[in-house]
Amino acid sequence: MTETLAVQLKGVVQKRSNFQLGPIDLAIPKGYITAIVGPNGSGKSSTFRLLLDLVKADEGTIEMLGQEVGSSPDVELNKKIGYLPEESWMHEEKMKATEKAEFQRFWYDKWDVNRYQELLRLLEVDPNQVLGKMSKGSRRKFEFALALAHGPELLLLDEPSSGLDPLAWKTMIDVLHRYMDRGDRTILMTSHIVEEVKRLADYIVFMSQGHVLGMYEKDELFSSWFVYFVSGERISAALAAKMPGQCGVEQAGGTTYRITTNQAAAAEQWCLEQGLELVSSQAMELDEIMAALLMQDRLNARSN
Ligand SMILES: Nc1ncnc2c1ncn2[C@@H]1O[C@H](COP(=O)(O)OP(=O)(O)OP(=O)(O)O)[C@@H](O)[C@H]1O
């Protein structure tokens, strides 16, 4: 594992009776925010559980912060990680928030009580409440403060905005940006929400049905996926299909075709060379890109 990677999965497989995760190969860079996006049940939370050694992989290796997960006791590794799970732990329902914080503090020698209290203040969380009686959003904010209080090198956030009101989410985003300011910290998060991925992530990993469809640098992703409306006397569905990076062709009426591509620059050059008119272009949203990738994946699966 190189110094520039925070997390690396090589050939990771987890088999369940109704679901197979992997094989997954993934390299998450240090110093950036990477978001894993994918439909419900695509395996995002399962991947996190493997990273945290809460369950074991059947095949493959996982390295986090240069250490192989599960090869030796993970105590020292865990001290460098902060984790916000998607669901709160049921067995803690009767515990007071302050009691959980005391427990957590015991485990982390870098626990910073000032940072913890500052986070509670910023997020407006009352730590004197019993966990099971907190609102979903308050509980989430509390768990978030706990995950950050020891200044982890690597922060794993499973659906961080789930249950938060817009103001709380904005505060959380500000906290995350400040957390990243040092330059050597890493966030790996999962998300369903296009806007939060757009605002936060530097890299995006698409997952579907237990496997990774691809990992992309966010700005590059948005500048390479476009929908073009192309017209010309000699255009046909067969010619439109030859556009570089073509991921979908539809006739849009008369001699105009709607073509989706993931190689925008090459596609525009190709139109020039073919003497075709670029009537209009549309940048694509993340959910549209994901839908196109899922469609391609299904077509590939059918043809294999
Ligand atoms: N403890 C478990 N035992 C058996 N199967 C499970 C378990 N947890 C999850 N699964 C299955 O694994 C698959 C992936 O679930 P996972 O929760 O990892 O997906 P996800 O991408 O995080 O979904 P969501 O977006 O809904 O949170 C699903 O088919 C789910 O039913």
Commentary on this structure:
With 304 residues, this protein is an alpha/beta fold. It has two domains: 214 residues, 3-Layer(aba) Sandwich (Rossmann fold); 83 residues, Alpha-Beta Plaits (2-Layer Sandwich), CATH 3.30.70. It contains eleven helices and 14 strands. Strands 6-7-8-3-9-10 form a six-stranded mixed β-sheet, sandwiched between helices. Helix 4 packs antiparallel against helix 5. 33% of the residues are buried. The mean pLDDT is 90. Bound molecules: adenosine-5'-triphosphate.
Helical stretch count? Answer: 11
Query: What is the architecture of the largest domain at the second tier of CATH?
Result: 3-Layer(aba) Sandwich
In CATH, the topology of the largest domain is named Rossmann fold
The helicity comes to 25-40%
- Name of the CATH class of the largest domain: Alpha Beta
C-alpha Rg (nearest Å): 23 Å
Shape from CA axes? elongated
Mean pLDDT across every amino acid position? 90
**Percentage of residues in strands:** 25-35%
Task: Report the CATH superfamily of the largest domain.
Answer: P-loop containing nucleotide triphosphate hydrolases
User: By helix and strand content, what is the structural category?
Assistant: alpha/beta
What's the domain count? 2
Distance between the termini: 32 Å
Number of strands: 14
The hetero compounds bound to this protein are: adenosine-5'-triphosphate
Strand order of the largest sheet: 6-7-8-3-9-10
Topology pattern, helix = H, strand = E: EEEHEEHEHHHEHEHEEHEHEEHEH
